[in-house]
Amino acid sequence: MSNAILITAAAALVISSPILALLSQGRPQAGDIALVIAAPWGGNAAQIAAQAGLQEIAPARAPLGILVALDNAQSVDRLYSNGAWLVIDGKKVLELCSI
Q1: Which of 70, 68, 29, 71 is nearest to 46 (CA)?
Q2: What percentage of the chain reaches a pLDDT higher than 70?
Q3: Domain-by-domain residue ranges, the chain?
Q4: Per-residue pLDDT averaged across 8-28, rounded?
Q5: 3-state secondary structure string, the chain?
Q6: How deeply is 9 buried, as exposed, middle or buried, from its count of CB atoms within 10 A (0-12, 13-18, 19+)?
Q7: Out of the domains of life, which is the source (predicted)?
Q8: Quick one: fold of 27-97?
Q9: CB atoms within 10 A of CB 44
Q10: Of 3, 42, 77, 84, which one is least surrounded by beta carbons within 10 A?
């Protein structure tokens, strides 16, 4: 029984490690690429970015997020005030997804 718990814990850690790596990054800065993640039941990420005055930079969208270019230091604050759940480093996402 204890082996099953250990294997389950190890699998959960391996599966969640890319997400933990993304969340542990610092706040994106002006001029950076950011991934904007929105609630699945609320306004979508494209609407949030448009309301914040930011442009999408990727040709494809994920179900809950989009990639945007941050114009200035207040861009992240505007995204959060318009309903973004998370704004994380988009360069790391591009590396993980090999885009």
Answers
A1: 68
A2: 87
A3: 27-97
A4: 77
A5: CHHHHHHHHHHHHHHHHHHHHHHCCCCCCCCCEEEEECCCCCCCHHHHHHHCCCCECCCCCCCCEEEEECCCCCHHHHHHHCCCCEEEEHHHHHHHHCC
A6: exposed
A7: Bacteria
A8: Alpha-Beta Plaits (3.30.70)
A9: 18
A10: 3
86-89 and 65-69 beta bridge pairing: unpaired
The confidence score (pLDDT) of residue 54 equals 92
Residue count of the chain: 99
Residue 56 contacts residue 67 (beta carbons within 8 Å): yes
CB 28, CB 38: distance < 8 Å: no
AA identity, residue 88: I
